[in-house]
Batch of 3 targets.
Target 1
Amino acid sequence: MTHVNEPAMKAVLVVHGGAWAIPDSISVASVEGVKAAALSGFLVMKKGGTALDAVETAVKAMEDDPVFDAGHGAVLNTDGEVELDAIVMDGRTLAAGAVSSVRNIANPVTLARAVMEKTDHVMLTDRGANHFADSIGIPKVHTDALVTDDERKEWHRYKMYSLGVKDLFNSQWAHDTVGAVALDCYGNVACATSTGGIRNKMVGRVGDSPIIGCGGYADNHSGAVSCTGHGESIMKVTLASRVIFHMEQGKVPSEAVKSCLQYMGERVQGGGGVIAVARTGDWAAEFTTERMAWAAVDGEVLWYGLNPEEMFQEKLPQ
Ligand code: GLY
């Protein structure tokens, strides 16, 4: 899926709700969720907000939607706990903030933004991230508040059959990540990515999502990228910065994303998905898994899809 923009600068926002074999039972909810998230983020820019504000808002909407593996709806680790990862990056300055393995936080993307804006660091992890959240008054939620009944049942099924991360790789039931990229009318780009990771991951396992250049990257000189898919594969090929590099070399986002996903498939046999926006406003949403729910707002049009080569459009609600 791709779109080539007019030369005039207009705001663009693209979101994904995770690249995996999304079952039919949640396909409609996944598409509705990404459409709502894209509209909420775009509205922020329409009211004068920045690309950074827009990606945070869009990702928060998906963290609050239990159909996605981020915030509410996150998958459980081997101990049956939620451990969340997130990143934000501001293409104006290359400032980035990330958190990994945080617990009891409903919106890790907001905590990641606070790491970027209120500390001298790029990433805080585990109890340090939670201490920081306490110190700036981010409210804690009870772990059970983030876990859905369906996830608890799936987790028990995995335990019963001793399924691990290897069995999840590209399987029907892997469950993965949300993200957003945006270009605002001032020419600034930003990205945000948030995840509960992969079900039955080891305690303390950190995937690609919070790692700069892997789960996301944003640079006003080229564009912004958010990734989803098998985290260990994405990290091995530093997928987000690889896509940025191809865009810097002059490839349009769809070409850059397709060739990097192909490389990841060939080099480390990993599947995934990428959304990208270039500084020109051209954007792409591509994946090598069975499905990826995605949506984009570009001018007056809301684009969306779920299956390969699928691209629907609607006029924006007034
Ligand atoms: N892509 C998310 C993860 O592997 O944790």
Target 2
Amino acid sequence: MRLFDLPLRVVSLYPDIMNTYSDRGNLLALQYRALQQGIEITLEEISVGDLLPAECDILLIGGGQDEEQKRISKDLKAKASQLQNWAEEDVSILAVCGGFQLFGKWYRDNKGNYLEGTEVFDMTTIAPRTAKFRAVGDIWVTSLIEGIGDVVGFENHAGQSYLGPHVSPFATVKFGNGNNGLDSTEGAVYRNAIGTYLHGSVLPKNPMLLDYLLSNALSHRYNENLEPYFSSPSPFVLQAQSTAMDVTRRKSEKR
Ligand code: GLN
């Protein structure tokens, strides 16, 4: 049964470079869920030197260590104005960890390298040169976006992100560090753009977040506010999320 006639236009940014903790799994989960709902998608994988396509309904970028971030930062900055336009046009965006940091205003790593971001998010990130901060471990957050609920994943970042007045947090931290380990915020939201520190990859075991991104992409494609009906997530997906929550809770109680 085909739900919609028009294919969703998916853009995956630097999949060959920004793929820490197999964040490519987010694309696989999206492809599977779209297929399951009878939604056709087209995919453009864009890396250094490639031009962005004219249109996009959903954009994904994964995480990367400082070296990988340095490799893409100039090319990403050159794409910034089009990425900002897509954010303003309510394209559905998911930026994870290192990709999330570079969708902010800038990121300074713990060697002092200053990397400009796309400025989609009013956010800055610093990896302290002195303090030995590195957020590593299972993380469980509660999204502030209605209908998404709890989200689980894994975090590993030295950067501490601080949100400015023109962006909202994606979630509050239940167990783990989140943006900076200080203010209990996790991630960022600007219009339909979501940034998060959650690897895992995050979409395969967080079905409500996946459906939220897919639903926004459909609304963008059809230029109307759709509330498409999606079939319930499979029991395996819900079991994976529940197991991750149990593991995170147990590990946090031991800390
Ligand atoms: N290099 C960044 C940091 O350490 C992001 C790491 C990542 O994407 N896992 O904060």
Target 3
Amino acid sequence: MWMMMLIMLLLLVSNGEEVGGSSGEVEDGIISRNLLANGLALTPPMGWNSWNHFQCSIEEKLIRETADAMVSSGLAALGYQYINLDDCWAELNRDSKGNLVPKSSTFPSGIKALANYVHSKGLKLGIYSDAGTRTCSNTMPGSLGHEEQDAKTFASWGVDYLKYDNCFNTGTNPKERYPIMSQALLNSGRPIYFSLCEWGQEQPATWAPKIGNSWRTTGDISDKWESMISCADENDRWASYAAPGGWNDPDMLEVGNGGMTTEEYRAHFSIWALAKAPLLVGCDIRAMDNVTLALLSNKDVISVNQDKLGVQGKKIKKDGDLEVWSGPLSKNRTTVVLWNKGTSSATVIAYWSDLGLNPTAVVKAHDLWTHSIQRGLKGNISANIESHACKMFVLTPQ
Ligand code: GLA
């Protein structure tokens, strides 16, 4: 009897560690914790954001065409549902009642009409503001001190997602400023995904799960290999804090923007999927080439990201430039990325002991990019991999 209780206690404690020591509980084998009470983001969000490709050059026609392209390209059917405006959508000044005003030269029909259009396509609309006096572009007001009013405005327009930035913040701690908007969104009566963007400055993984659906763990990504791998590494430190309802955010995808090779973009997308990162496309999806579309459309890679277990995979082995990233999936499966960050081709190997598999396990490996299957694998999986390329597998014990 005592032995049983001790074993149960140990199980609870070790499961609790999966969520970084926050108050985890086990219900039906799924770890729950004190989540933001908006019920959103049980899997990482998928969609598009305007910033990486367009910066401030946005207007309503572009957003409507992007919603159209999301549907006609087939991406919407694969789960990409958010169409997110970033910075620069509003006038510099509020109106006489203190309301945010959509920029009349670029959003003449207003945000409510845009939300209606996006919703009519079966998609959701995201918007952007800042926990300071101005947004980062310095072209529109921030929401500091206007949280309740702005959250009500967003809800009245039918907004589904808020990215909340950290510029012009008057020096107070994000831990003071971000919870106010989180509560204002809850008070607004509309479920609005809350995306914190304080760039990882105050270790948001340790406090944001209670107030947000995701939190940036890094500075801004750029469309370069070095930037992408550094975002992946910084984000990896916080893996144990991610769980259904709240995710680490290593910043938006650069796939399709032209600054990396196809193999680098494949690695970028694979690692973001494995790390349960938001999959927010950052290219011009109206003009994507077939290679970009094929990368973003890989159903098997997407299903790793959207796996119901919701455990962030992480870097589990590093041998110079050769890395193994891995994490558990539902149904007793494991995902693995073998990644060669070096400048010439090399063999990358993951042993069952690296992956936490039983040493005697016989495994079926599904290659998520070539769609080939290897059966009867014993002891390890390995592959010869080109410079900056990766292989991604799902392993199932046979
Ligand atoms: C900050 C954010 C970016 C983007 C810009 C907009 O730099 O981190 O993701 O939103 O502001 O100005």
